[in-house]
Amino acid sequence: MARYLARRLNLFFATSLVLFVVMFSVTAKFPVDHTVALTGIHAPTAEEQASINEAYRLDKGQVSQFIAYLEQRLSGNLGISVTSQNPVFNELTAVLSASFELAFVAGAIALLLGIPLGVLASLSKHKITQHTIMAITLTGYSIPVFWLGLSLSLWFGVRLGWLPISGQINLLYEIKPVTGFLLIDILLWDSRYAWSAFVDALQHIVLPAVTLAVLPFTVVVRITRSAMMSIMEKTYIKAAEARGLRTYTIVMRHALPNAFIPVLKNLGLMLGAFASYAIVVEVIFSWPGVGAWLVSGIYQRDYTVIQGGILAVALIIIFLSILIEVLHTAINPLSRKELYAAH
Protein backbone atom coordinates (compact mmCIF):
# COMPACT_ATOMS: atom_id res chain seq x y z
CA MET A 1 0.00 0.00 0.00
CA ALA A 2 2.93 2.33 0.74
CA ARG A 3 4.24 1.91 -2.81
CA TYR A 4 0.77 2.59 -4.18
CA LEU A 5 0.50 5.80 -2.14
CA ALA A 6 3.96 6.85 -3.29
CA ARG A 7 2.94 6.34 -6.94
CA ARG A 8 -0.21 8.40 -6.43
CA LEU A 9 1.83 11.14 -4.74
CA ASN A 10 4.21 11.14 -7.70
CA LEU A 11 1.19 11.37 -10.01
CA PHE A 12 -0.04 14.43 -8.11
CA PHE A 13 3.35 16.14 -8.40
CA ALA A 14 3.72 15.24 -12.09
CA THR A 15 0.24 16.47 -12.98
CA SER A 16 0.75 19.65 -10.98
CA LEU A 17 4.05 20.24 -12.76
CA VAL A 18 2.31 19.96 -16.14
CA LEU A 19 -0.28 22.46 -14.90
CA PHE A 20 2.42 24.95 -13.94
CA VAL A 21 4.12 24.50 -17.31
CA VAL A 22 0.84 25.28 -19.08
CA MET A 23 0.19 28.33 -16.88
CA PHE A 24 3.74 29.60 -17.41
CA SER A 25 3.37 29.27 -21.17
CA VAL A 26 -0.06 30.93 -21.22
CA THR A 27 1.13 33.80 -19.04
CA ALA A 28 3.66 34.77 -21.68
CA LYS A 29 0.82 34.99 -24.25
CA PHE A 30 -1.38 37.40 -22.27
CA PRO A 31 -2.05 40.65 -24.23
CA VAL A 32 -0.24 42.73 -21.64
CA ASP A 33 3.33 43.43 -20.59
CA HIS A 34 4.94 40.26 -19.22
CA THR A 35 5.86 42.02 -15.98
CA VAL A 36 2.25 43.03 -15.38
CA ALA A 37 1.02 39.51 -16.14
CA LEU A 38 3.44 38.04 -13.60
CA THR A 39 3.09 40.55 -10.79
CA GLY A 40 0.09 42.80 -11.44
CA ILE A 41 2.23 45.91 -11.02
CA HIS A 42 1.59 48.63 -13.60
CA ALA A 43 4.44 51.02 -14.37
CA PRO A 44 6.91 49.61 -11.81
CA THR A 45 9.68 51.88 -10.56
CA ALA A 46 13.30 51.14 -11.40
CA GLU A 47 13.71 49.44 -8.03
CA GLU A 48 10.58 47.32 -8.46
CA GLN A 49 11.58 46.36 -12.00
CA ALA A 50 15.01 45.26 -10.80
CA SER A 51 13.39 43.22 -8.01
CA ILE A 52 10.97 41.61 -10.48
CA ASN A 53 13.79 40.77 -12.89
CA GLU A 54 15.73 39.16 -10.07
CA ALA A 55 12.76 37.26 -8.62
CA TYR A 56 11.52 35.90 -11.96
CA ARG A 57 14.97 35.82 -13.69
CA LEU A 58 13.60 37.61 -16.73
CA ASP A 59 17.11 38.12 -18.08
CA LYS A 60 17.75 34.35 -18.12
CA GLY A 61 16.53 31.51 -20.35
CA GLN A 62 13.07 29.97 -20.43
CA VAL A 63 14.00 27.07 -18.17
CA SER A 64 15.44 29.36 -15.54
CA GLN A 65 12.39 31.64 -15.79
CA PHE A 66 10.06 28.68 -15.32
CA ILE A 67 11.94 27.53 -12.23
CA ALA A 68 11.72 31.05 -10.81
CA TYR A 69 7.99 31.20 -11.68
CA LEU A 70 7.46 27.86 -9.95
CA GLU A 71 9.37 29.02 -6.86
CA GLN A 72 7.32 32.21 -6.60
CA ARG A 73 3.95 30.49 -7.02
CA LEU A 74 4.75 27.63 -4.63
CA SER A 75 5.90 30.14 -2.01
CA GLY A 76 2.45 31.76 -2.14
CA ASN A 77 3.47 34.77 -4.20
CA LEU A 78 0.68 34.98 -6.76
CA GLY A 79 1.29 38.66 -7.43
CA ILE A 80 -1.11 41.48 -6.66
CA SER A 81 -4.53 42.08 -8.16
CA VAL A 82 -4.41 44.52 -11.07
CA THR A 83 -7.72 46.09 -10.02
CA SER A 84 -7.64 46.09 -6.21
CA GLN A 85 -3.83 46.12 -5.76
CA ASN A 86 -4.20 43.59 -2.95
CA PRO A 87 -2.19 40.37 -2.79
CA VAL A 88 -3.93 37.70 -4.87
CA PHE A 89 -3.10 35.05 -2.25
CA ASN A 90 -5.01 36.97 0.43
CA GLU A 91 -8.02 37.45 -1.85
CA LEU A 92 -7.95 33.77 -2.81
CA THR A 93 -7.89 32.52 0.78
CA ALA A 94 -10.72 34.91 1.64
CA VAL A 95 -13.07 33.42 -0.98
CA LEU A 96 -11.94 29.79 -0.91
CA SER A 97 -13.81 28.86 2.27
CA ALA A 98 -17.16 30.06 0.85
CA SER A 99 -16.71 27.79 -2.18
CA PHE A 100 -15.82 24.80 0.00
CA GLU A 101 -18.85 25.44 2.20
CA LEU A 102 -21.20 25.59 -0.78
CA ALA A 103 -19.66 22.47 -2.35
CA PHE A 104 -19.91 20.53 0.92
CA VAL A 105 -23.59 21.37 1.43
CA ALA A 106 -24.40 20.57 -2.21
CA GLY A 107 -22.51 17.27 -1.99
CA ALA A 108 -24.32 16.36 1.24
CA ILE A 109 -27.70 17.05 -0.39
CA ALA A 110 -26.77 14.93 -3.42
CA LEU A 111 -25.67 11.96 -1.30
CA LEU A 112 -28.40 12.12 1.34
CA LEU A 113 -31.15 12.25 -1.29
CA GLY A 114 -29.51 10.37 -4.16
CA ILE A 115 -28.49 7.17 -2.38
CA PRO A 116 -31.94 6.41 -0.85
CA LEU A 117 -33.67 7.16 -4.16
CA GLY A 118 -31.21 4.94 -6.02
CA VAL A 119 -31.84 2.12 -3.55
CA LEU A 120 -35.60 2.63 -3.87
CA ALA A 121 -35.41 2.57 -7.67
CA SER A 122 -33.47 -0.69 -7.58
CA LEU A 123 -35.64 -2.50 -5.03
CA SER A 124 -39.09 -1.27 -6.03
CA LYS A 125 -41.25 -3.77 -7.87
CA HIS A 126 -43.50 -1.04 -9.22
CA LYS A 127 -42.56 0.08 -12.72
CA ILE A 128 -44.21 3.46 -12.16
CA THR A 129 -41.93 4.19 -9.20
CA GLN A 130 -38.83 3.13 -11.12
CA HIS A 131 -39.74 5.10 -14.23
CA THR A 132 -40.67 8.20 -12.19
CA ILE A 133 -37.34 8.25 -10.35
CA MET A 134 -35.33 7.69 -13.52
CA ALA A 135 -37.34 10.35 -15.37
CA ILE A 136 -36.58 12.84 -12.58
CA THR A 137 -32.86 12.06 -12.74
CA LEU A 138 -32.77 12.27 -16.54
CA THR A 139 -34.57 15.61 -16.44
CA GLY A 140 -32.22 16.95 -13.78
CA TYR A 141 -29.19 15.79 -15.74
CA SER A 142 -30.47 17.49 -18.91
CA ILE A 143 -31.43 20.88 -17.47
CA PRO A 144 -28.75 23.56 -18.01
CA VAL A 145 -27.48 24.76 -14.64
CA PHE A 146 -27.81 28.45 -15.52
CA TRP A 147 -31.48 28.00 -16.49
CA LEU A 148 -32.19 26.03 -13.33
CA GLY A 149 -30.52 28.62 -11.12
CA LEU A 150 -32.38 31.52 -12.70
CA SER A 151 -35.69 29.64 -12.54
CA LEU A 152 -35.28 28.83 -8.84
CA SER A 153 -34.35 32.44 -8.16
CA LEU A 154 -37.41 33.68 -10.05
CA TRP A 155 -39.91 31.36 -8.37
CA PHE A 156 -38.66 30.96 -4.80
CA GLY A 157 -36.87 34.28 -4.47
CA VAL A 158 -38.75 36.86 -6.51
CA ARG A 159 -42.33 35.61 -6.90
CA LEU A 160 -42.82 33.70 -3.66
CA GLY A 161 -40.25 35.62 -1.63
CA TRP A 162 -39.37 32.55 0.44
CA LEU A 163 -35.58 32.60 0.05
CA PRO A 164 -32.88 35.21 -0.67
CA ILE A 165 -31.33 35.02 -4.12
CA SER A 166 -27.91 36.58 -3.58
CA GLY A 167 -25.10 36.77 -1.08
CA GLN A 168 -24.07 34.54 1.80
CA ILE A 169 -25.77 36.29 4.74
CA ASN A 170 -27.66 39.48 5.55
CA LEU A 171 -25.27 42.41 5.79
CA LEU A 172 -26.76 43.38 9.17
CA TYR A 173 -24.87 40.51 10.79
CA GLU A 174 -21.17 40.98 11.50
CA ILE A 175 -19.75 37.52 12.05
CA LYS A 176 -16.20 37.30 13.35
CA PRO A 177 -14.25 34.87 11.16
CA VAL A 178 -12.76 31.97 13.12
CA THR A 179 -12.66 28.93 10.84
CA GLY A 180 -13.55 30.76 7.62
CA PHE A 181 -16.70 28.64 7.20
CA LEU A 182 -19.64 30.93 7.87
CA LEU A 183 -22.07 28.35 9.28
CA ILE A 184 -19.48 27.09 11.74
CA ASP A 185 -18.37 30.61 12.68
CA ILE A 186 -21.98 31.55 13.45
CA LEU A 187 -22.30 28.56 15.79
CA LEU A 188 -19.13 29.73 17.55
CA TRP A 189 -20.42 33.31 17.72
CA ASP A 190 -21.28 34.35 21.27
CA SER A 191 -24.31 36.50 20.61
CA ARG A 192 -28.03 36.40 21.24
CA TYR A 193 -28.49 36.86 17.50
CA ALA A 194 -26.51 33.73 16.64
CA TRP A 195 -29.54 31.54 15.96
CA SER A 196 -31.28 34.10 13.73
CA ALA A 197 -27.99 34.62 11.87
CA PHE A 198 -27.62 30.84 11.42
CA VAL A 199 -31.14 30.55 10.01
CA ASP A 200 -30.46 33.49 7.69
CA ALA A 201 -27.23 31.87 6.44
CA LEU A 202 -29.07 28.59 5.84
CA GLN A 203 -31.74 30.41 3.85
CA HIS A 204 -29.05 32.05 1.71
CA ILE A 205 -27.31 28.75 0.93
CA VAL A 206 -30.44 26.75 0.03
CA LEU A 207 -30.93 27.91 -3.57
CA PRO A 208 -27.27 27.79 -4.71
CA ALA A 209 -26.69 24.47 -2.95
CA VAL A 210 -29.79 22.86 -4.47
CA THR A 211 -28.86 24.15 -7.92
CA LEU A 212 -25.33 22.81 -7.60
CA ALA A 213 -26.51 19.49 -6.13
CA VAL A 214 -28.70 18.56 -9.10
CA LEU A 215 -25.87 17.20 -11.28
CA PRO A 216 -24.19 14.96 -8.64
CA PHE A 217 -27.64 13.96 -7.36
CA THR A 218 -28.66 12.53 -10.73
CA VAL A 219 -25.34 10.71 -11.07
CA VAL A 220 -25.59 9.25 -7.55
CA VAL A 221 -29.15 7.98 -8.16
CA ARG A 222 -28.27 6.30 -11.44
CA ILE A 223 -25.01 4.73 -10.24
CA THR A 224 -26.56 3.57 -6.95
CA ARG A 225 -29.48 1.99 -8.79
CA SER A 226 -27.24 0.21 -11.26
CA ALA A 227 -24.85 -1.01 -8.54
CA MET A 228 -27.66 -2.19 -6.27
CA MET A 229 -29.38 -4.12 -9.06
CA SER A 230 -26.11 -5.90 -9.80
CA ILE A 231 -25.24 -6.59 -6.17
CA MET A 232 -28.70 -7.93 -5.26
CA GLU A 233 -28.12 -10.73 -7.76
CA LYS A 234 -24.85 -11.83 -6.14
CA THR A 235 -24.55 -15.21 -4.48
CA TYR A 236 -23.84 -13.87 -0.98
CA ILE A 237 -27.03 -11.76 -1.14
CA LYS A 238 -29.05 -14.83 -2.15
CA ALA A 239 -27.45 -16.73 0.73
CA ALA A 240 -28.39 -13.98 3.18
CA GLU A 241 -31.97 -14.06 1.93
CA ALA A 242 -32.03 -17.86 2.32
CA ARG A 243 -30.94 -17.47 5.96
CA GLY A 244 -34.05 -15.39 6.55
CA LEU A 245 -32.39 -12.00 7.06
CA ARG A 246 -34.66 -9.00 6.64
CA THR A 247 -34.37 -6.98 3.45
CA TYR A 248 -33.40 -3.88 5.48
CA THR A 249 -30.53 -5.76 7.13
CA ILE A 250 -29.32 -7.18 3.82
CA VAL A 251 -29.38 -3.78 2.13
CA MET A 252 -27.73 -1.82 4.95
CA ARG A 253 -25.08 -4.36 5.98
CA HIS A 254 -24.23 -6.15 2.78
CA ALA A 255 -25.49 -4.44 -0.38
CA LEU A 256 -25.26 -0.70 0.24
CA PRO A 257 -21.62 -0.60 1.44
CA ASN A 258 -20.58 -2.40 -1.74
CA ALA A 259 -22.83 -0.22 -3.90
CA PHE A 260 -21.18 2.91 -2.51
CA ILE A 261 -17.83 1.92 -4.05
CA PRO A 262 -18.79 2.70 -7.70
CA VAL A 263 -20.60 5.83 -6.47
CA LEU A 264 -17.38 7.09 -4.90
CA LYS A 265 -15.41 6.32 -8.07
CA ASN A 266 -17.84 8.23 -10.28
CA LEU A 267 -17.86 11.22 -7.93
CA GLY A 268 -14.12 11.47 -8.48
CA LEU A 269 -14.58 11.40 -12.26
CA MET A 270 -17.09 14.28 -12.24
CA LEU A 271 -15.10 16.74 -10.11
CA GLY A 272 -14.20 18.83 -13.16
CA ALA A 273 -17.82 19.19 -14.25
CA PHE A 274 -18.84 19.89 -10.66
CA ALA A 275 -16.28 22.71 -10.40
CA SER A 276 -17.44 24.30 -13.66
CA TYR A 277 -21.06 24.11 -12.47
CA ALA A 278 -20.02 25.70 -9.18
CA ILE A 279 -18.52 28.69 -11.00
CA VAL A 280 -21.79 29.30 -12.86
CA VAL A 281 -23.85 28.90 -9.68
CA GLU A 282 -21.68 31.34 -7.74
CA VAL A 283 -22.11 33.96 -10.45
CA ILE A 284 -25.90 33.49 -10.63
CA PHE A 285 -26.40 33.80 -6.87
CA SER A 286 -23.59 36.33 -6.21
CA TRP A 287 -21.99 33.78 -3.90
CA PRO A 288 -18.67 35.18 -2.60
CA GLY A 289 -16.57 32.20 -3.67
CA VAL A 290 -13.67 31.45 -5.98
CA GLY A 291 -15.91 31.11 -9.04
CA ALA A 292 -17.49 34.55 -8.79
CA TRP A 293 -14.09 36.06 -7.92
CA LEU A 294 -12.47 34.40 -10.93
CA VAL A 295 -15.20 35.45 -13.37
CA SER A 296 -14.96 39.01 -12.05
CA GLY A 297 -11.22 38.91 -12.69
CA ILE A 298 -11.83 37.69 -16.25
CA TYR A 299 -14.26 40.54 -16.93
CA GLN A 300 -11.78 43.07 -15.54
CA ARG A 301 -8.81 41.48 -17.33
CA ASP A 302 -7.09 40.96 -14.01
CA TYR A 303 -4.42 38.55 -15.21
CA THR A 304 -2.93 37.73 -11.81
CA VAL A 305 -6.38 36.90 -10.42
CA ILE A 306 -7.06 34.70 -13.47
CA GLN A 307 -3.82 32.80 -12.89
CA GLY A 308 -4.42 32.44 -9.16
CA GLY A 309 -7.99 31.25 -9.59
CA ILE A 310 -7.17 28.72 -12.30
CA LEU A 311 -4.20 27.35 -10.35
CA ALA A 312 -6.26 26.99 -7.17
CA VAL A 313 -9.24 25.30 -8.84
CA ALA A 314 -7.08 22.97 -10.94
CA LEU A 315 -4.84 21.92 -8.03
CA ILE A 316 -7.86 21.24 -5.82
CA ILE A 317 -9.44 19.08 -8.54
CA ILE A 318 -6.20 17.14 -9.08
CA PHE A 319 -5.73 16.58 -5.36
CA LEU A 320 -9.32 15.52 -4.66
CA SER A 321 -9.39 13.22 -7.71
CA ILE A 322 -6.30 11.36 -6.52
CA LEU A 323 -7.59 11.34 -2.92
CA ILE A 324 -10.89 9.77 -4.01
CA GLU A 325 -8.99 7.18 -6.04
CA VAL A 326 -6.92 6.30 -2.97
CA LEU A 327 -10.06 6.02 -0.82
CA HIS A 328 -11.71 3.88 -3.49
CA THR A 329 -8.75 1.51 -3.47
CA ALA A 330 -8.65 1.43 0.32
CA ILE A 331 -12.31 0.44 0.78
CA ASN A 332 -12.61 -1.81 -2.29
CA PRO A 333 -11.45 -5.37 -1.52
CA LEU A 334 -11.06 -6.21 -5.22
CA SER A 335 -8.79 -3.22 -5.80
CA ARG A 336 -6.66 -4.16 -2.80
CA LYS A 337 -6.42 -7.74 -4.07
CA GLU A 338 -5.20 -6.53 -7.48
CA LEU A 339 -2.85 -4.09 -5.77
CA TYR A 340 -1.16 -6.70 -3.62
CA ALA A 341 -1.13 -9.24 -6.46
CA ALA A 342 0.83 -6.74 -8.54
CA HIS A 343 3.60 -6.81 -5.97
From TrEMBL:
It comes from the Bacteria. The keyword Transmembrane helix applies. It is a multi-pass membrane protein. It comes from Shewanella algidipiscicola. This is Antimicrobial peptide ABC transporter permease SapB. It is found in: Cell membrane. Belongs to the binding-protein-dependent transport system permease family. OppBC subfamily. InterPro entries: MetI-like, MetI-like_sf. Keywords: Cell membrane, Membrane, Transmembrane, Transmembrane helix, Transport. The chain crosses the membrane at residues 102-123, 135-156, 205-224, 267-285, 305-327.
